[in-house]
Amino acid sequence: xxxxxxxxSDGDSPRVKFGTGKLQEAITAEGIKTEILQxxxxxxxxxxxxxxxxxxxxxKENIAPQVRKKVPEKKEAFRIYSADNDIxxxxxxxxxxxxxxxxxxxxxxxxxxxxDTIDFTDQPEMVLRGTAIGMQKTTLLPGRGVYEYxxxxxxxxxxxxxELWIDYLDxxxxxxxxxxxxxxxxxxxxxxxxxxxxxxxxxxxxxxxxNEEMFEFLTTEANKRGIWxxxxxxxxxxxxxxxxxxxxxxxxxxxxxxxxxxxxxxxxIAAFIEKxxxxxxxxxxxxAMSGIKNDINWFTNTVIPGVKDGLKELERTDEPxxxxxxxxxxAPKVIEAAFPLYKNLYTMHKYNxxxxxxxxxxxxxxxxxxxxxxxASIHISNVHVLANLEPFRYGSPDFIQKSVxxxxxxxxxxxxxxxxxxxYWDWPYxxxxxxxxxxxxxxxxxxxNAWGRYAWDDERDRQEEIDFWSDELSEKYGGSRKVxxxxxxxxxxxxxIAPKTLRRFGxxxxxxxxxxxxxxxxxxxxxxxxxxxxxxxxxxxPKGEILIDYARKEWNxxxxxxxxxxxxxxxxxxxxxxxxxxxxxxxxxxxxxxxEFKRLQNDMQAYNAFAKFFSEKVKAAQLVLxxxxxxxxxxxxxxxxxxxxxxxxxxxxxxxxxDHYLYANxxxxxxRRIPIGGNEGRYKTWQEMLPLFVEEYExxxxxxYKLQQAGSGNIKQKKIEAWxxxxxxLLSEKERYPVEIGTLVYDRMSAQIIDLAPxxxxxxxxxxxxxxxxxxxxxxxxRNSKPVKVITGYFDSEDPDNLVAPTLETNAAGNIRxxxxxxxxxxxxxxxxxxxxxxxxxxxxGQHQLKLxxxxxxxxxxxxxxxxxxxxxxxxxxxxxxxxxxx
Length: 887
Ligand code: ADA
Prior knowledge:
By secondary structure, this protein is an alpha/beta fold. Alpha-D-galactopyranuronic acid is lined by residues 284, 327, 354, 384-385, 510-511, 671, 808-810, 812.
């Protein structure tokens, strides 16, 4: 039979060709016979569809001037129109033509036929719309640091699975994503060989070839779909064999930039540009280096020259974009210093940090976005690790649409970079406990659909959006539009819970915290002991009060302002209930994808149980804080009742998750600290957490009992033993001092110890010169024959002359010696100094150098590493924190 429709397109453009193929598939699926031609025949009668790029040679030869219509002059824009009986799908560029073909294919699918007449123009708002894939794993590889994962089939079997890539890339193009980022610490040693550093390569010959082949495959397939592949890397990391060869470490935040590091990295970057000319670079000047001077130096003297060297080899005179992340650096300063050398710089910054918390961002983090978007032509908003959404299903189009609006209107961003909704560290899987692991791209289809849809156009009418999503959902799960509407409601109600809870009660948006596992009472009543991430409260939500401020104001009868804790707990419990009601209502009409629907339903129940658990806990915490002001024991007893209730809901959460989830958080290392350390992959399920929450309840009960026994007097505290000091050999020429009342820790009278925690009584400190520490930092050299912990005292203040304690939000390696948590809060009092918190660094036997950044910090001595030490708030300065009630 003769073809009924002829599709005519420019076969030389891979994107046009790909779009043409997809359109043909859609038309053929409706039983219409098609043929593809390369040029427009003049003598046939069939209906013709041409797909073309406006202004191209092909266009000029094939599209008659009288049927040409204007396409907006914007990258990726397109117009589809009919004239006579023919259809013209014209793109401003090849991506525009691709999208025109796909749009037409979509319409054919929907209406089961080609349109009779049409004139439709479209163009994207966000110019880059990309997704992230972590070439990373849930745990560290033996002997390697964070982000150090060579590209090998053992580490990433899925990376070599071409079918999986095709599915993923198809999903991306369907949602009109046009960029794909691969994240890794130091990818170069898996992808290029250097003449001067042959030993740097960290994969075998066979793997190297496979990697070349996969990059070729991936970039070619991506390009067909209008997708630009971008490789991300962290600075300064070197490969393991390179480090071993030169007897250095692979990464060290405090390291100096040496000619060797410079040369190796510059050559790596140059070779990468030369070999993979279509792959972009995303640069993180952080984590494994520090100090703005170093950052600027590295970017301008190593990264940019490396890119330029590569371009020169290729005899290219254009400047492909280099994307700079604002993470852990002062990006506006770096960009300003780099502009004279390289013009085509894009910037990127995290949207709400490493969580999704608000569409009303403000504060210092918004300022970073605004500064960057006013400097660079393209500023990308990065929806980074979704630490507060793991592991349940998230798909609130309403929240997502408003977030994209905030990216444009508040931050000035014009591009999006999206992380997977869950399990970034475990891609391509989800944490669902199913017989066959679910693929994240499939489970979280709505996540990709929604962000892609609004990145393209965020000004869509809400009512029409409700209909659109209701239809999408009813198509997926069967049932009427009403059924779809109920599912949408469930998603949107549940979609408020984690954002609201984290921004009002969390310690950090960073993946240091896994919100949905819950929080301890101490974290609610004494959050600063858990090191609230500076800027978090001010940036990631509307103005409001955290619980301790709220309780104080209540007690003082002061007016409240903004979002309050009681408001949020009443809202989240309502959202939880509404979500469950809506999903249960939908359940009656669902007829397809039933197993997945049940999992979704279970997630809604889990969110509901979480909201109830959390709210009861907040009520308890509020009463505990009230007791702290009033001393009324009855209030504490009330608190215990709420805590008991919260446990009941937590048990429900355990029941709902134990057969449904493998874990809550995909980063399963000691970088996870809240609610509790995730060392060796522990405490990643609700079941594992439950006994700890029971214990804190029992501790409270026991302490109430003791308080009651003591009548109005104070209860007798357990005697606290001093930590056992350890023998070490100090290799730095330094004076030592006994850590006791009256000692001077610096050479000035006001640096005198006037009170201290009994734990510190037997220590012998190491004296440093204050000015020397502020200007050059602290270096402590010692030798030990048994494992020891170095006891350090960090000043709790914003004075830039004091060293900031290790911050995991910008330094994922900041806990490799167990130093990230405060071991003793408020543990030492000097005559004239802020509170001092104790952090400890563990060292195995050997010779060591502890290098700390610039600023005051106390080295209070060494203790035997394997003794049991209890973390607590000592309260030597000011009032003792109330969280002792839970110890
Ligand atoms: C933090 C976080 C890491 C990673 C990093 C980044 O250090 O803990 O997991 O996301 O930020 O690159 O932004």
